[in-house]
Amino acid sequence: MSDSPPVITDLKDYVLTIRLNRPKANAFNLEMIDMVRDALKQAGRDAQVRCVVLTGSGRVFSAGQDVKDFSTTDGDRSFRQHLQRTYNPLILQIRRLEKPVIVAVNGAVAGAALGIALACDLRIASEEARFVVGFLGIGLGMDSAVSLLLPTLIGLGRATEHAFTNEPISAQDALAWGLVNRLAPADMLQQEATDWAAEIAGGPVRAMGLAKRDLNKAVLSNLEQVLDYEAHNQDIAGRGEEHKEGVQAFLEKRPPQYV
After folding, report:
1. 3-state DSSP call for residue 86?
2. Which residues contact 201 (CB under 8 A, 6 or more apart)?
3. Where are the alpha helices (DSSP H) in 4-86?
4. What is the pLDDT, as a whole number, of residue 74?
5. What is the domain partition of the chain in residue ranges?
6. Is the peptide bond before 24 cis (omega within 30 degrees of 0)?
7. Residue 1 has what pLDDT?
8. I want to staple 168 with a disulfide (CB 3.0 to 4.6 A). Which of 88, 130, 156, 230 is the partner?
9. Does position 14 have pLDDT exceeding 60, yes or no?
10. Is the pLDDT of residue 56 over 80?
11. Averaged over 189-206, what is the pLDDT?
12. Antiparallel, parallel or unpaired: β 101-105 and 122-126
């Protein structure tokens, strides 16, 4: 087990880099979520931060919520309360931060982490990145605004197909469909993301914040309501037999048997 913190931050040349660092899949737990939120809060307050880059360590951006947490529940856990405590405020915080947020997707991304990546303003991905909706793989609906952000970017038909089948979206398709803005070779991703962030940080960041308000109003005005409705439905799914079977199959490394 690494002694490094689960989130590493670095401020250089007006760019704050927030790096997920929880081997091996950078799966989120409560500590990691709180640390990302604290870093974003600091970014909002610090005039030395003019752009934020969110990325991951290793070869995976993030597998989303740590599924092992689900194995400890007895069925009385409230998914609604969990989302209201964790991902819902994090997604809103990203959208309400009036500074540019770039996500550098260094590898596979799934579940709630996909929602976090989609909530960022701009996306650059490794040519080896894969985007997986993930939720239905463990018998859940969607949350973390994936139900809104994914079809907004790639269309309802594609979003529905990849939600239902859980098939990964390749980096190349992600670029062609508008899911990401740019691709980079894996070994050049961090440098290209940093260079892009530095370029943006040299622009009119205050005006960018106002433009972000405009985009939120025009395209994502119902974001908060969608997050709340997702949490409601996730509570229903989380108490169902499909979710129990999905988690058990994941832990046992076998295909789930849904009846």
Report:
1. coil
2. 13, 14, 15, 50, 51, 100
3. 30-45, 79-85
4. 52
5. 7-187+205-252
6. yes
7. 47
8. 130
9. yes
10. yes
11. 98
12. parallel
